[in-house]
Amino acid sequence: MVDQDKLPVVAVDAMGGDIGPSAVVPGVVDALSETTGYSVALYGDKDSIQTELNKLDCSSLPISIVHCTQAIEMGDSPASAVKGKPDSPIVKAMTDHKAGIVSAVMSAGSTGAMVAASLMILGRLSSVKRPGIATVIPTSGKPFVMLDSGANVQATPEHLETFAKMGDTYCKSILGNENPTVGLLNIGEEPSKGSELTVAAHKLLAESNLNFVGNIESKQLPYGPVDVLVTDGFTGNIVLKMVEGFGALLIKILSGSKDSKSDDKSAMLEKMDYSSTGGAMLLGVKGSSIICHGASNSRAIKSALVIASRLALVDLPTKLEECLSDSN
Amino acid sequence: MVDQDKLPVVAVDAMGGDIGPSAVVPGVVDALSETTGYSVALYGDKDSIQTELNKLDCSSLPISIVHCTQAIEMGDSPASAVKGKPDSPIVKAMTDHKAGIVSAVMSAGSTGAMVAASLMILGRLSSVKRPGIATVIPTSGKPFVMLDSGANVQATPEHLETFAKMGDTYCKSILGNENPTVGLLNIGEEPSKGSELTVAAHKLLAESNLNFVGNIESKQLPYGPVDVLVTDGFTGNIVLKMVEGFGALLIKILSGSKDSKSDDKSAMLEKMDYSSTGGAMLLGVKGSSIICHGASNSRAIKSALVIASRLALVDLPTKLEECLSDSN
Question: Among A190, B22, B79, B247, which residue's Cβ finds the most Cβ atoms within 10 Å?
């Protein structure tokens, strides 16, 4: 029998997201029922968590509770919440991650508090000026990793190059893709097209040792044109939320169809379902920080926890630091 | 009988777009068969145009041909094409527009040549620093007008304010919408969210006399949240091409469905079909310049010509100049 005390621990904010424990706890139980090799510590109000656990068949699963007496509210500024609420789930979990007690932290929000706690408590990798949010974007083909999806509103060409290298390392280390293609989101295919930022970033990426395939226009995105898509956080956030909006519309239309011979459509629904692609990862900090969508249902929590458990097993920050400190 | 010589003339580049005369000429004939009050002058190689006209029943329609001996090629730089090819369809038509011989110019491209010819031959309105491309974006609800859709890669808050006012005037003058809602595309709803550009633009728009409803997140776009959406040309072009890509995917999926009870889906297909929304308009120049998608089929040409004919009948540049010179 495996010694549960030796398993890497994923800290999960049980109170996070719009739904809270009634979505998070079932998602955690589902993930642990299907995947092994890690344990989960649920951070939050112990009574609320226990109430949800009691509804489920999970006594044999490696789940523990870390009681927290504080909560971050919608109105709290992220930075002051991190400083002023040490016993809130996000802050306490991140502090435990820094201390090596847990191997990854996952929360459905707020995003601002997760980013602030990661930066202030874990800190940046020495070779990363701006950590970026990596999200997995569903498409009708293969999903791709996009970063930055909104950690920073402004970017330099050098930031975009760092995002590209972190996305590349993520694909190699976590997804097992040995030679991921990297594209730059732009408004034309030619290297000369776009803003000063994208023209300069294209040059840096073309000179790097990445498998850079050039500029990608947004009309290609629904078909999954690359493994890693690089963009600034403003544009990335616009793209992310458009995918979310169009995906929801598509699912609504397809679900409402009366077509019975719908194997193709079922496959498409599955592919385009945002809740199957896992959470967003803040790459470039000294730790593993996974941010789920605020509207996450238990299925989304489950998907994100599967990714979080892989991050807990692989020391991604060290791999990122190695990759980024290489010349080129 | 109406004197055809008195009708406003829309100049149409018969050679434009990926398909050329075999898409443009049927689209023009279809539009003129269903709408009246204007005539069309087809600019291009007269033999190629006549060959297409001969295939169609159009002898009674108000169509003329203006023969052009030059053609703008894909490799030509827009500015040098405008200077060096005065007898190409776009340049000749724009020169005739400047001289008052035609009331609007429409072409399926190249976009670069149309923008350059509009700026160099017609010139900017005195109160407009940066003309913007306005596109009509199809949604599952009502379509909206988005600008800038790609005329400029960089923008200032003042440019965005001008775009908002031009979109507002367009809705009022051409679409008959007396009180259009105006939104600012951003990565959060709160006024403080976003880049320096969007924060400053939000302030200017909130202080204007427009019906400004605030920031709009991209996840709302598939549902048609406003009448006018304001953004910089880089972000606008990303959004435009994503809508195009997702629209094509949606149509492909819905068209392939075997569902027979599909009135809802037919209506959705019609709504989301890019070719039904007309061309893009370059707003802020001293004239009416309509740019169709390079891949326009005859249906797209027809839709764009209906809009172009309205622009030919209404003196939009004068209305824009009036609106923009008002205090506020």
Answer: B247
